[in-house]
Amino acid sequence: MSVHSGVFTPEDRADAVYRYLPVDVPPGCPGVTIELEYDAAQGALDLGCFGPAGFRGWSGGARRHASIAPTWATPGYLPGELASGEWQVVLGLHRVPAEGLPWRVRVGLGAPAPPPAPVLPPLPDRPPPRSLPAPRGMRWLAGDLHAHTVHSDGELTVDELAALAVAQGLDFLAVTDHNTVSHHAHLAAAGARAGVLLLPGQEVTTHRGHANAFGAMGWIDFRAPAEDWVEHVDRRGGLLSINHPLGADCSWRQPMVRRPALAEIWHWTWLDRRWGGPMAWWQAWDASVVPVGGSDFHRLDQGRLPGEPTTWVLVDNGGVDAVLAGLRAGRTAVSAGRHGPVLLRLGDELLALDAEGALLADSTGGRRLVRSARASFVAAPGPQWLEDGQTAILAICG
Q: Which H or E run includes 377?
């Protein structure tokens, strides 16, 4: 057992947000167990771990205990052989009070007791699909590009989240746990069992903003400059999305010259859609960025479910690569849910569905009345949206 302790001060946080505690792991070590102690009523510390070869896990502020063994690990951490040498426990100084924050870390070397095997949830019935007009050989998939599991700060296992997505009638769901890829190994099997496409993702999370990276591209170093995230994701064939850019203390404040392909314009925090902040941010940031939406689902008691809002992607098949290709090409639409008004761009045509009486608006200030449940318009360039008589946003597309 090795022990580290101290008191973090605001000066410590100003000097370096991440602190590294060395731990010597001998050859043949059967496991590492980390325990973090501090008063969460006074501050907030994040927890992670790196081995000699790099990343081995991150749980942020969701856990204060983590174990890593050759055949299993605490969710958020990567199982596998424990290389001998210097390991590092990482503490993120997220919130530190003026009077300082006492802390203690204990690291045990030995075989940790594995948790009980998870119980697979029953599979729900899938609601009838909503068929939207699409070009020949293509179809619109209903999905959600932001959700969490027990691999970070979510409540559900990957299998439980997959079952919930099916109950919501979703065709795909991106699983985007914070600063880890430990959930990726479970996605294909859980998605196949439930009958839903689970898109590999990770929410690159810092105190100055979050971004979702979509695709199986390996772990992204959240400690690096945000510019590096874009390069990493592009080099490995994925897609990066700015998350909830106006989301309270998680708002986007990272410097970034090269814009990523996507932005989460519609996040669950857009509670009053008469507020034009998200649309204003989109047009000020880069109106050519592809708009997407995300529920940011964590728990069943939070008052929203996956698919609220719904991101629609036009694809030529139902695989992960097809969804990424649709996102990359900007073939997206976002609506409040799977039902209700939706605005689709099909070439030079804009199609407003189930939005009779709404106004079709664009970034030039133009507005056109939607006169029927299926109304076609010549598409103007740039952002387009449907709004009601109170100027509340009903649906958007790029």
A: strand 374-378
